[in-house]
């Protein structure tokens, strides 16, 4: 079993970077914003919150699998489901930003278009990773570990591109408006259990 766990730990570490990207939808400013921008921010934050939870849950599932002495088949099943959930979540976030329209700021249309495009690309990339995990050879321990290693490397890149996409969307007044929304604040809480 030695080949699987260290590699899957790397996978979990890369994944936690991806989870951070959605949870980054919370700033720390409380300036007054206009009503249009606030209502836009509320719509986006309300839609993001359940998706952020889904991504966090997928991340937790993979991390749990790394702490157990799991077989390659179990790791494959868990990881594939987690990637599918993440793909669905990013697609839903992209759709939510698209539906909300352009934020009421200078260059808002470009911000929206760029973010939606990037979120959809991330969704597709997680879908591709799910297919790659499905295709891994679980009967050959060494091959399986190598395959996971390649997937973990791709995840690192994916996390970074997602962070960049949302950072651009949240520049300036947009980020300030989002920071004021309760649903964005709760989406960024690192652990829902810690709050209750």
Largest sheet: none
Radius of gyration based on Cα positions: 18 Å
What is the strand tally? 0
Question: Quick one: overall form?
Answer: elongated
Instruction: Give the fraction of residues assigned to helices.
Output: over 70%
Q: What's the end-to-end separation, in Å? A: 37 Å
User: Helices and strands, in N-to-C order?
Assistant: HHHHHHHH
Number of helices: 8
Instruction: Tell me the β content.
Output: under 5%
On the 0 to 100 scale, the average pLDDT is: 79
Low-pLDDT runs of 5+ residues are 26-31, 190-196
SS class? mainly alpha
How would you describe what is shown here?
The chain is mainly alpha-helical. 80% of the residues lie in helices and 0% in strands. The protein contains eight helices and no strands. It has helices at residues 4-23, 35-67, 72-100, 108-135, 141-169, 173-179, 182-187, 192-195. Helix 2 crosses helix 6. The chain is elongated and about 60 Å long. It starts with a helix and ends with a helix. Residues 26-31 and 190-196 have low confidence and may be disordered.
